[in-house]
Write a structure and sequence with these properties.
The protein is of the alpha/beta class. It is built from 10 helices and 8 strands.
Length: 242
């Protein structure tokens, strides 16, 4: 049983982006108010004392000091907390009220790819679970779950394109600045993609709302500033093409 009417995701970097995507899913699937906060900044904000708020902490390791401190503060106010974490027995998993282990095993390098995929998977399942209890249609629920199960096959298809990806990477490797311009569900993915480029290549990259490019960011676009867009076949296809 739950009696909250707002969900606030808390995380840093990759986990923040997972929560960012989660805000879209919770609004659309669960029909509940949701937002995302950077863990290190949350302690400086004033919050209304409201027992109907659910704070969802997201982390790969869950030994991050700034996340632990804000969690302790939230628990001191008796607010409800849930964790989505990879490491069994980690500090935050022991401090929160309830949660979900992603069990993505150990990340062996700086780019937190397995953790991110498992985090957004857990958030999607959470949204579906509560959405089903909040009048989400059986047809819509089944469609999302069916597409979710196809992800491993789609990842395999992408891996088979590795030679083409290498050729593209070689062609753009001479550039020093990149723009990732997406919309809606794809915006948090653009932010994560931009972060991955910075973490691995030490190159400058930005993510931005595609439509907002018409404002000041347009001045940054030059011949040596490639832009990357993901244009899915959805209700925003025509706007993205424009």
């Amino acid at each position: 049983k739950y009696d909250f009417d707002e969900v606030i995701f808390v995380g840093s970097w990759t986990s923040y982006h997972a929560g960012f995507l989660g805000t879209y899913w919770l609004w659309d699937i669960w029909n509940i108010k949701s937002s995302v906060e950077v863990a290190s900044e949350l302690e400086f904000k004033k919050f209304e004392i409201n027992e109907k708020k659910l704070f969802v902490f997201i982390s790969q390791s869950w030994e991050t000091a700034d996340s632990i401190e804000i969690l302790k503060y939230i628990k001191s106010r008796w607010w409800k907390t849930l964790w989505i974490v990879n490491v069994v027995g980690s500090t935050i998993s022991r401090l929160t009220d309830f949660g979900m282990f992603t069990r993505a095993w150990t990340e062996v390098w700086v780019a937190s790819t397995k953790a991110f995929l498992s985090q957004i998977s857990a958030i999607l399942l959470l949204a579906l679970y509560f959405g089903k209890r909040n009048n989400l249609s059986h047809a819509h629920f089944g469609k999302i779950l069916s597409e979710f199960k196809e992800i491993p096959e789609k990842i395999e298809q992408i891996i088979k394109e590795s030679e083409k990806i290498k050729n593209i990477a070689k062609e753009i490797s001479e550039y020093k600045n990149f723009f990732y311009l997406w919309r809606h569900y794809q915006l948090p993915i653009a932010s994560e993609w931009s972060l991955k480029l910075k973490e691995i290549s030490y190159l400058h990259s930005e993510s931005y709302w595609a439509w907002e490019l018409k404002h000041w960011p347009l001045a940054l676009i030059q011949e040596d500033f490639p832009s990357v867009m993901c244009i899915p076949w959805d209700f925003l296809f025509d706007k993205n093409m424009s």
